[in-house]
Amino acid sequence: MTEIFGIPLQAFLSQLLLGLVNGSFYAMLSLGLAVIFGLLNVVNFAHGTFYMLGAFGAWLTLQYLGLNYWFALVISPLAVGIVGIIIEKTMLRWLYKLDHLYGLLLTFGLALILEGMFRQQFGVSGQQYQVPDALRGATNLGFMILPNYRAWVVVASLVVCFSTWYVIERTKLGAYLRAGTENAALTQAFGVNVPRMVTLTYAFGVALAAFAGVLASPIIQINPLMGSNIIIVVFAVVVIGGMGSILGSILTGLGLGVIEGLTKVFYPEASSTVVFVIMAIVLLVRPAGLFGKEK
Amino acid sequence: MDNRNKILYAGLFIVGLIAPAVVYPIFLMKALCFALFASAFNLLLGFTGLLSFGHAMFLGTAGYITGHTVKVMGFPTELGILAGVLASTVLGYLVGSLAIRRQGIYFAMITLAFSQMLYFIYLQAPFTGGEDGLQGIPRQTFLGIVNLEDDTAMYYFTYGVVVLGFWLIYRTIHSPFGQVLKAIRENEPRALSLGYDVDKYKLLAFVISCALSGLAGSTKALVFKFETLTDVHWAMSGEVVLMTLLGGLGTILGPTVGAFIVITLQNQLSHLEGWVTVITGVIFVICVLAFRRGVVGEIAALLKKA
């Protein structure tokens, strides 16, 4: 059997894929954080919670409405997006003129509330969600067995991430958004409805997190703590990449997922800390982040 | 310090001396340790404008080191505390030098990420006892004379430590160094242009805050005779933010008031179990939206009006 650095090729490649899958989640979450931070100047601590809500949304729509995975993929992000609209309109809106830290603290409080409520309702043991029929099984590529669902996760999130990048960087709507990020008052003076754009941006960002949650639901234990576990890693990802660049967020997310996956092969004890170690190194070498600009 | 404040502090000092006659000493010691922890945190957030979202790592690190040196290596109590404080000071220096390389809200994310890294390290490290924690830490004696296994003696020991900590914080805030910190909080570019080495000041404030958080952690580990992962978890970092915010950001007594309120609430509501998290979250949201001055800040504003 072929080996790479003493590791069987098959094991190596499957960890690589697993890393890529995790990286897709990091990419989608850090992308949402970056878009929200760009326009709202809020570091959305509740982002992980919305990811959790997305996964629970999939599970709940199946349990109580009997709707399958494909419906969940649409309904769950929509529902979470509406929650986002409500939060932005009733709470976040009042904090824009204040120091950034209040946005972080408010969303931290919201995360505690939602996480606590779900923990009371569902416990911490975790729920199972089946892989949809169409994506079950695996494809033999000759050099490795590729589980179909994992491949789908990577492809779907790449498509979503790059569509987001395209919309923001290459369309008229995106131009408004970038203008609003640069100078909200001036953009409004040109007749763009900035407050509505801000609301929708927040809704879109959290819906993206929920979408990631639905994608994750068949391959993880759906439990109330999954959000806060991932969000801290995503913060590190964001520090490494810098929030200034959309493409940067996507690449950093994917890259770190892969590095984490490979660490699991070569030195499993460090797999939970490797992202933070990389963060420390980046802070030493390039304080502004890989894709960041010094402000 | 004007006369009104002198009377206030003297009165509070006496209240602290007679409190264990009325209130359960373990509860008081817990609240005092958290009061010191929150005040140390406030030195950073309230007086320097730096939000550290990973302050639990300094509380927990000191607790683990003190516990380990006292229990396993046979250090006397004073040396054990010293070792704990030293550990969080060094950790504070390392984390601080990295974190101040980024501005604003990144600082919060970096400190949070490092504290999570330490959480994972302590989860796996053999000396911490992992999920079980470090149990049965002996309190021993103070200077070989006072037996700290007695709760009343331990209370006065804790009280002494906390008062010392407060005095240090008070002195720091009211020193020329503290004035520079305030200048940095109000307008960092201006402080920089006036010739102050802003990063050096920020780092020093950070390290002082970490050392004092460590002092709180070491003492807390001795009070409870155990140290667990709870103390390094991000929820603890959130708790100290809540205490400070609820009591009054940038006020001297605010964090202490906040700590007593939060600890009392946790004790009173402990039968609600998981709902405590939800209630904590609700208090957070209310504080941020409508009560940003905190209890002490509101009272001070009322007194000013009157």
How would you sum up this structure in a few lines?
The complex is a heterodimer of chains A (295) and B (306). Helix content of chain A is 70%, strand content 3%.
Mean pLDDT of chain B: 92
Largest sheet of chain A: 2 strands, antiparallel
Portion in helices of chain B: over 70%
Largest sheet of chain B: 2 strands, antiparallel
Describe the structure.
The complex is a heterodimer of chains A (295) and B (306). In chain A, a hairpin with a 4-residue loop joins strand 3 and strand 4. Chain A is mainly alpha-helical and 295 residues long. In chain A, the strands form 2 sheets. Chain A has a two-stranded antiparallel sheet. A two-stranded antiparallel sheet of chain A has the order 3-4. Chain A has helices spanning 9-40, 47-64, 69-90, 100-122, 148-170, 172-182, 184-189, 194-216, 226-241, 246-266, 274-285, and strands at residues 3-4, 7-8, 138-140, 145-147. Chain A is globular and about 65 Å long. Chain A is built from 11 helices and 4 strands; from the N terminus they run E-E-H-H-H-H-E-E-H-H-H-H-H-H-H. Chain B is mainly alpha-helical and 306 residues long. Chain B has a domain at 25-233. Chain B contains 13 helices and 2 strands. In chain B, helix 3 (56-71) packs across helix 9 and helix 6 (151-173) packs antiparallel against helix 9. The model of chain B has no long low-confidence stretch (mean pLDDT 92). At the A-B interface, helix 4, helix 9 and helix 11 of A face helix 5, helix 10 and helix 12 of B.
